[in-house]
Amino acid sequence: MKLYVVKELEGFLPATLFQAMAQLGQECLIITEPKDTFLSLGYFDNLKYLIDIHECQKLKVPIMRRITGGGAVLLSKGQVFYQLVIDRHKAPFKVEEAYRKFSKPVIEVYRRLGLEVYYRPINDLVTKEGRKISGQGACDVGRMFVFVGNVLVNFDTHLMARLFRLPKEFVSFVEEALRENLTWLERELNRMVSFEEVASLLVEEFSKMLDLEGPYLLPEEALNLAQSIAQEQSSPECLFEDTGRKHELIKLREGVYLKLVDSGLLLIEDGLVKRSLSFEE
User: Fold this and answer.
1) Quick one: 75 exposed, middle or buried, by C-beta within 10 A (0-12, 13-18, 19+)?
2) For the chain, what is the domain count?
3) Cβ(86)–Cβ(185) under 8 Å?
4) Cα–Cα separations (whole angstroms), residue 252 to 24, 75, 212
5) 11: domain range?
6) What's this model's pTM, rounded to 2 decimal places?
7) Start and end of every BPL/LPL catalytic domain (predicted)?
8) What is the tens place of the pLDDT at every residue in 89-148?
9) Whole-angstrom distance, CA of residue 104 vs CA of residue 91
10) For residue range 193-249, what is the model confidence (pLDDT) as tens digits?
């Protein structure tokens, strides 16, 4: 299996390159990092109900829709992506079993960096305090199975809080909720962590599971296809597709949601209101 390690891919390529490889039927492991900041919608997200489009335009945060599910996420430098593309028959038949299997190398990377994390079904890695530190996704593309995720080295919770389609008076409340439920390596370890450090560990750990060769230069055919996919998945037709979702709840992590009600904003955890902020406060 070919290995590609690419620092700072431009534009939407960090989110479309694995899809191009899958469409081309190329088994590979890609490890990369975005050069630019952008918002990635989940496959079923309804943009107009979930995201403040004008705020994205004001802050120059472009938007695309990915082929995997999950919620809207802010992708940027400071996140190391791991993207596995394999023949479908080589992955466990049950999706949760696939998540468990392919999460193991990533969990070991965190451990070697000095942080214990755990798999939380179906697609999160969390610290012992329950904070999400890695979001993952998986899907079939033709005859290929893709498993993707990110090691959060750093994360801009303030920027993410501004992008939700919520009254701006709640930005601080949302940012606090994000910081309570998400975390990242530099925060947990209290030190700088480089792309090279994380990438080398990912290669070492995935090599215990996969017969990796390389790293290789990215094939031109895949880059061109990834650019084409990026254009399609950031087009108005794709972004504004009515998926049927109204987004009465905004998911922060598994079991934790924001809900806008007549009186204000609620933070809900495991079905119970943990905290609220009224419009008057």
Assistant:
1) buried
2) 1
3) no
4) 34, 15, 34
5) 2-243
6) 0.94
7) 23-214
8) 999 999 999 999 999 999 999 999 999 999 999 889 999 999 999 989 999 999 999 999
9) 14
10) 999 999 999 999 999 999 999 999 999 999 999 999 999 999 999 999 988 888 889
User: How many angstroms separate the CA atoms of 47 and 64, rounded?
Assistant: 10
What are the Cα distances from residue 41, in Å, to 38, 112, 241, 260?
A: 10, 31, 11, 20
Structure tokens at 139: 């899907």
Q: Report the interhelical angle of 220-233 vs 13-23 (nearest 10°).
A: 120
Residue 104 token pair: 């193991």
Classify 208 as helix, strand or coil: coil
- The CATH code of the domain that includes 146 is 3.30.930.10
* Owner of token pair 């990026």: 230
Tokens coding 72: 């809207």
Q: Two tokens at 65?
A: 């829709």
Residue 213 tokens read as 């060769």
272 occurs within a structural domain:
no
